[in-house]
Amino acid sequence: MSSELVIAYYDASPDTTRQERWQALLTPLLGTFRMVGLLDAAAEQAQIALVWSPPTGRLAQLSALKLIISLGQGVDHLMREPDLPKSAHIVRLVDPNMSHALSQWVILNILDHYREGRLYRAYRAEKAFIQRPQIETADLPVAVYGMGAIGQVIASQLAGLGFDVHGWSRTKRDFGSQITAYHGSDGFRQLTQTCRCHVCILPLTPETEGLFSAEIFNSMPTGALFINGGRGKQVVEADLLAAIRSGQLGGAALDVFAVEPLPDSHPFWDEPNITIWPHVAAQTNPETAARQVASAITSVLAGKRPENLVDLVRGY
Ligand code: GLV
Q1: CA nearest ligand 1 atom 5, residue
Q2: What is this structure's pTM?
Q3: What residues in the chain have per-residue pLDDT under 70?
Q4: Most buried of 197, 248, 294, 308 (most Cβ within 10 A)?
């Protein structure tokens, strides 16, 4: 039996250079190891799986696995696995670089909406030099749903821009003086009814699937903005479409969809008040994430608990 370190890699992308890039970045941090494709026979010796959206059932076949690392912050792509090896820890990326990227995407969409970017671009096309009144961020209550590592960065960046920021978490938490904290289903209802801008950054779990439905959209102040950087399945898409078409919502900016890539025939494409992004709000950056991946691997090989462990029962 060899004790050689074998890492099985899969990222569901046609770009085959990514695996080599990870290998090159991890080599100075881990020393010698062998990186193999998750679907190769050699993956059966792998102690580590570094994966995004692996084919269902494949991880269950790898009995030597000690650690499964999600190549993204979300782990819903692993939760549909029926039989993850019991002996393996699961960790997700918590990369400050990605949290900042996501907060920049949220800010971009909020400011474009409230500073009327689309209208000014239309004026520009007409060579119309028309000035409109400007919003005051302090008059704009924003709700951030999901106050984990990413949500907290978003909330504090928005507070720094002068927005009136409210953070929602499942259980009671405190986020400091700049962010009003809400929790539980009562807190959720209070926020949907009072905030004018709603930012979803929640993980996909049985509790959050279909959370944003007609009932919730209708409880929001008329003209509210809805931003989703969480997961598409948290939204009842037909209800969002109806809320946009009726004017109940003033706009939506979406990076995630129930089905990705968003099909050509999807009615969202025809709604100018829905801004569509192809799941690019925060892309995994191997350069910044490699250190975290290496540290999880080193901890597990030394018999220690890695950081950013996923709780399979909680679902994130
Ligand atoms: C992206 O959606 C991620 O989960 O990292």
Answers
A1: 72
A2: 0.94
A3: 1-2
A4: 197
116 close to 132: Cβ distance less than 8 angstroms:
yes
Q: Supply the range of the domain harboring residue 53.
A: 6-95+284-301
Residue having the nearest C-alpha atom to atom 2 of ligand 1 = 74
**Phi-psi region for residue 96, left (φ > 0), alpha (ψ -120 to 50) or beta?**
alpha
Nearest residue to 280 (alpha-carbon basis) of 300, 257, 302: 257
Shared domain for 196 and 108, answered yes or no, is yes
d(CA 73, ligand 1 centre) in Å: 5
**φ, ψ dihedrals at 145, nearest 5°:** -95, 115
279 is annotated as an active-site residue: yes
The domain tally of the chain equals: 2
* Residues 102, 205 within the same domain: yes
Is 146 inside a domain boundary?
yes
Active-site entry in 92, 196, 198, 231? 231
CATH number for the domain that contains residue 222: 3.40.50.720
How do strand 6-10 and strand 164-169 relate by DSSP bridges? unpaired
CA R_g for the chain: 21
The predicted-structure confidence for 230-257, as pLDDT tens digits, reads as follows 999 999 999 999 999 999 999 999 999 9
Q: What count of Cα atoms within 13 Å lies in the side-chain half-sphere of residue 194?
A: 17
Is 312 a domain residue?
A: no
Amino acid at 190: Q
Mean pLDDT rounded to a whole number for the chain: 96
C-alpha dihedral sign at 267, 270, 273, 276 = positive
CA distance linking residue 198 with residue 98, whole number of Å: 20
- For residues 75 and 62, state if they share a domain: yes
How many other CB atoms sit within 10 Å of the CB of residue 78? Answer: 20
